[in-house]
Amino acid sequence: MTPASPAPATDALLTVRGLQRRIGARALFDIDTLPFPRATAVVLTGVNGAGKTTLLRMVAGLEPARGATVEWTGDDGRPQRAPLDPLPPALRRRIAYMHQHPYLFRTSVRENIAYGLRARGMHAGQIERRVDAALAWAGIEHVQDTEPQKLSGGEIQRVALARAKVLEPDLLLLDEPTSNLDGRAREQVIALVSELAAEGRTVVMICHDRDLINLPGVVRWKLGDGRLDTHHR
Ligand SMILES: Nc1ncnc2c1ncn2[C@@H]1O[C@H](COP(=O)(O)OP(=O)(O)O)[C@@H](O)[C@H]1O
Ligand SMILES: [Mg+2]
Question: Is the CB of 27 under 6 A from ligand 1?
């Protein structure tokens, strides 16, 4: 008999294990196993200071994550396992993080969106096509040549979403995407976030926005008292 190959623990998009963060002597959180479901919108809630931003940034490879591991299925269909920190290159391409207050480079909106594709060495013609599609998707074609410091809060948020989507990530981590918006700007961002989820991406968003929490099919995670409840109702 041939030994069975190690089966993935779940059919999750990826699974993080041993995710913990201490602040001085206090454990902010200690999460044994955290599977990220495929093609799902997840809302992450918890009181201020619970560690929500820290958690997403660790998964995005933007904060130290000593001792944590990550498991995923490689392009060849085989199970992969590696330390979370530093984030494996194969995952860096598949995960996008959007800051609560997105930082845009002091160049045109178009260049801001193209930046990540250039960094990947994509051909100029293909970059133009992808950026055009992302601008149209986010409804920001009219500001494509504008400097970011002249944009409204809602436009900045939509540029940041377009900059993330253009990379075609499997997992988007969004930190309070609507918290600084109201009225039409907020509705536009909610519509874009729900489209990302409907496209089959996994979207994990920190948010308190009832309209996002109530999107169809949303899964709720709650961080509190050092634990993550992934079956929160
Ligand atoms: N670099 C840091 N050094 C020390 N404490 C930090 C640091 N970053 C965040 N914290 C603390 O960690 C806790 C969680 O922060 P954060 O992840 O921003 O929470 P949330 O997003 O849930 O409001 C807070 O008490 C915050 O003050
Ligand atoms: Mg936060």
Answer: no
Regarding beta strands 41-45 and 69-73, do their DSSP bridges make them parallel or antiparallel, or are they unpaired? unpaired
The full DSSP string for 159-171 is HHHHHHHTT--SE
Q: Is 49 in the pocket of ligand 1 (CB under 6 A)?
A: yes
**CA 31 – CA 19 distance, rounded (Å):** 5
C-alpha–C-alpha distance, residues 139 and 196, integer Å: 14
Predicted TM-score of the model (pTM): 0.93
Tens digits of residue pLDDT in 20-75: 999 999 999 999 999 999 999 999 999 999 999 999 999 999 999 999 999 999 99
Supply 161's token pair.
């979403």
Which ligand has the nearest atom to the CA of 22? 1
**For the chain, which residues score pLDDT lower than 50?**
1-9
The domains of the chain, with CATH numbers, are 2-229 (3.40.50.300)
